[in-house]
Amino acid sequence: MKLNTKSRYAVMALADMAVFSSDNAVSLRDISLRQGISLLYLEQIFLRLKKNNIVKSVRGINGGYILVKSPKELKISDILSALDQKVKTIGCKKDSKKSCNGKSTKCITHNFWDELDIHINSFFENKKLSDLLKNREARI
Amino acid sequence: MKLNTKSRYAVMALADMAVFSSDNAVSLRDISLRQGISLLYLEQIFLRLKKNNIVKSVRGINGGYILVKSPKELKISDILSALDQKVKTIGCKKDSKKSCNGKSTKCITHNFWDELDIHINSFFENKKLSDLLKNREARI
DNA sequence: ATATACCCGACTAAAATAGTCAAGTTTTTG
DNA sequence: CAAAAACTTGACTATTTTAGTCGGGTATAT
Questions:
Q1: What is the predicted pLDDT for the residue at A123?
Q2: A80 occurs within a structural domain
Q3: E strands, chain B, where?
Q4: Mean pLDDT score of chain A, rounded to an integer?
Q5: Which terminus of chain B is more solvent-facing, meaning fewer CB atoms within 10 Å of its CB: N or C?
Q6: Which residues, numbered 9 to 28 in chain A, qualify as contacts with chain B under a Cβ-Cβ cut-off of 8 Å?
C-alpha cells in the first residue's frame, strides 16, 4: 500500500517552497537541487499543480512558482487530488460490473473498504501544508 | 493508493469462511464459487495464510480450511501482513540511501509520512474480522 | 539578443500485479 | 484398493502501472 512518487515529490516540493519562498517565485531548478528530484520530473508535477490551481507560475528569468494559498490553508488532500492520487483502496465499487457486481454475498466486505477510504481521506483532509513544517529538524 | 487484490480477496475469503463455516472445513472450491475468485488464485493466497497461521488445512475429500482464531479475535492487520501487504506509504526511510539520504532538508516531510502509516495501521489493528460481518446486507 | 525558466505531449524502461500452469501429495469413501 | 476431492508448491507470463526522459516549444527580464 503505497503512495506514488509524484504525490510524494509534490508534497516535498511544496513544503520546500513554503520554507524557502519569501515573496519571490521559487524556481524548479532550486527545488530540484535542494530536494534531489529530477528537474524534468518536477516540471511534469508542477504542470498538474498549476492546472489544479495549487501554484501559479511566473515565466522568464527569475521566474518560478508561487503558492496560491498560504501553507496554513493548503490541505494535503488538495495536493493529492491534483495528481489524481485517489484514495480508493480497492478497485471494486458497489455498482460496478468489475470484480464485484454488487451482489451482497459476493462482496460482503464493501462497507469495510468504504470505511477505510474515509479513514485515510480524513487524514489528508485535516492536514495542512504548514503542519508538515512544524516539527522538522534543523535545516541547513 | 490502493490495496492489492491478494489482500482484498484474502479478507473476502476469510469473511466468507466466517459466514459459511459451521465447524467443518470450507473448501476453496466453495469460496471460489461464492465469491467469484479464481480457484488457482485462492490457492496461492491460502498458501500464505496457512504459512502465517491464519488458517489450517484439512486434506482429502471434504477437506478445506479452518480459521485458526475466531473472527472476533482475528485482526485485519494479521491478514494483511500474511500477504506482505505492508503499509509503508512511501519508499524512503529516514536512514536509507535511496531517494532521501536522511538529510533534514532533503526530506522535510518524513514525520508526516510516518504519521500517515501509523494512522492507517491503527485502523487495521483495531478491526477484527467479525466487525466486517456486522452490517452486511441480507445474504442469499 | 539571449539566457533563464516555464509549457506540454509523447515516449520508454523497469517494476509490480494478477493470474495461470504443471505436477505433485494426502485422505476419504465406495 | 482405486479414484476423486482437495490441498501443496514453485515457476511462469501477460498486463498494467510507475517513474522518469526527451524534444521541441513559449514568455520575459536584463
A1: 96
A2: yes
A3: 55-58, 64-67
A4: 86
A5: C
A6: 11-12, 15-16, 19
Residue in this structure with the C-alpha cell 442469499, named with its chain if needed: B140
In a domain, B140, yes or no: no
Mean pLDDT computed over every residue of chain B: 85
| Contact status of B8 with chain A (Cβ, < 8 Å) | yes
The enclosing domain of A98 has a CATH number of: 1.10.10.10
Residue with CA nearest C1' of nucleotide D22: A40
Q: Is the pLDDT of residue B97 over 50?
A: no
- Which residue among A88, A91, A109 places its CB closest to the CB of B11? A109
Number of H helices, E strands in chain A: 6, 2
Quick count: other Cβ atoms within 10 Å of Cβ B41?
14
Q: Where on strand D do bases come within 7 A of a protein Cβ?
A: 4-11, 18-23, 26-30
pLDDT of residue B63 exceeding 90: yes
What's the total number of domains in chain A?
1
In a domain, B35, yes or no: yes
pLDDT at res. A96:
43
Inside any domain, residue A139: no
Query: Are residues A104 and B19, on separate chains, in Cβ contact within 8 Å?
Result: no
State whether the Cα torsion A13-A18-A20-A21 is positive or negative: positive
Which tens digit of pLDDT belongs to each residue from A33-72?
999 999 999 999 999 999 999 999 999 999 999 999 999 9
Residue A43: domain span: 5-134
Q: Which of A101, A90, A112, A19 is nearest to B130 (CA)?
A: A112
